[in-house]
Amino acid sequence: MRKLSACALLTRRTVLEGSAATGLLMAAGLPAAAAPTPAATATAPASAPKIALRLTINSEERLAELDPRTTLLDALRNHLELPGSKKGCDHGQCGACTVLVNGRRINACLTLAAMHEGDEITTIEGLADGDNLHPMQAAFIERDGFQCGYCTPGQVCSAVGILGEAEAGWPSHVTADVSAAAIALTNVEIRERMSGNICRCAAYPNIVAAIRDVAERA
Length: 218
Fold this sequence. Notes:
It contains 6 helices and 5 strands, in the order αββαβββαααα.
């Protein structure tokens, strides 16, 4: 058996002695000086003064006094009584909060309400014309494009948004002809463009079918 060097013995001895000392300190309790002092504890940030906002939502002017840090999603749900837009991940990854701003789809959880004065904001509540559903809403019902329904408002708003994108000729990562004046919403195009909207019930085939129906009738 190979003998250990003096250096190795010293190192092990030091570790053992340190461990014994630590055990004694733990048994006796740490010194009072180690406890954090009240001055060292973090204090909660003071709330910001509220600002008055004038927002145009579903063709109606709405007034609200909000903390300037309030997201558009929280403004809609908690202050303006429009709970159709859902809070899912609150990090812009699931698409449940998708709304239309000036016709373009955005994640309402990633933008501040104060940034949208003067914009035309459309939520799921504003798509129907009275008792007449938007064609996309009717198609989702006809094709059974939902199960639990939680993600459906964001899915529908996003689907309406991609109709405008395709009509304007905005290409996606799977568009073969990026110079086309208008993009055909094939199954592949729809899946790519809707990839930011998550359905945990996995109703994706029915969602794609509903969007394709509306696109073909447009």
